[in-house]
Design brief:
elongated, 82 residues, alpha+beta
Length: 82
């Protein structure tokens, strides 16, 4: 089965960020997707001034991105079937 990492902003309009096919990943698409998601998660954790309230599991993470002093957007990345 093929997998992808999706991104949503405030839970709306999911879009594919990265694709992982079994053929391209030597039949380990989910493992490759988790590895890439982990790299993205570490990138978020290294920038606490930009990414507030980070939360995550092995198949998803989310954080609040401040768009102004009083408003923020909830950004979520997750792995799901392609």
């Amino acid at each position: 089965m093929d997998y992808a990492i999706y991104k949503t902003t405030d839970g709306k309009h999911p879009r594919v960020i990265h694709r992982f096919t079994q053929e391209a990943c030597n039949h380990k698409a989910k493992a490759a997707a988790r590895e890439k998601l982990n790299d993205m998660w570490l990138h978020v954790l290294q920038r606490p001034m930009l990414h507030h309230n980070p939360k995550g599991t092995k198949d998803e993470f989310q954080y609040d991105y401040m768009t102004s002093v009083n408003t923020s957007e909830c950004i979520r990345f997750y792995i799901d079937k392609l």
